[in-house]
Amino acid sequence: MRIPYVPKTPSTQDETEAAILNRVLTRRGPEGLLPLDRALLHSFPVADAWNTFLGAIRTQTKLSDSLREMLICRVAVLNEADFEWDHHAPILVKAGFPAESLDVLKAPNLEQLSSTTTGSGSGSGFKLSSKDLAALLYTDEMTKNVKVASSTFRRLQEHFNHREIVEITATIGAYNCVSRFLVALDVDERGNAEDDTVST
């Protein structure tokens, strides 16, 4: 971490900050603050807006858990955001994605994959659906190029309605923001977040 983390129990200056901290803690549940939160809480207003936006992306869209987490994991791979991958890959597996096939999301060129391509070198027989592949290719172009080719967008439209396209786009955009924040500040729970704190 390139700046110190705030303490695991951050101090607050007023009722507004206390309410923000409570909202973040409520969303995180019994596990408490993540290292990401302990970076964001240097700025309570930013942490609050972040918590609201990402909370909506994670819990209020119509996307399946599997699709949402697959997109997030692909963004993590493309942006080399290890913290993001480590946090979301287990959630993807819990949503039903085969753990032994996670490497398919690390393929350098998804165009080489198809609905008949085995998704794991281990011979698991896992196959990406054409629907999943369309969403992943869209993820790649949004993340790498920002601009998306018309052919890629038409491919997405074959599988998703307008609301789903908006939510897919928002999810990809949101987690590009997350990964860029994580990588730029070198936020990583595998680092020494216990000791690397602001002195109080």
UniProtKB/TrEMBL annotation:
Superkingdom classification of source: Eukaryota
Any coiled-coil regions, as ranges: none
Pfam families membership: CMD
Domain Carboxymuconolactone decarboxylase-like: residue ranges: 46-102
Species the sequence originates in: Vermiconidia calcicola
Single Gene Ontology MF annotation: peroxiredoxin activity
InterPro entries xrefs: AhpD-like, CMD-like
Lineage: Eukaryota, Fungi, Dikarya, Ascomycota, Pezizomycotina
Record-given protein name: Carboxymuconolactone decarboxylase-like domain-containing protein
Signal sequence annotation: none
Listed transmembrane segments: none
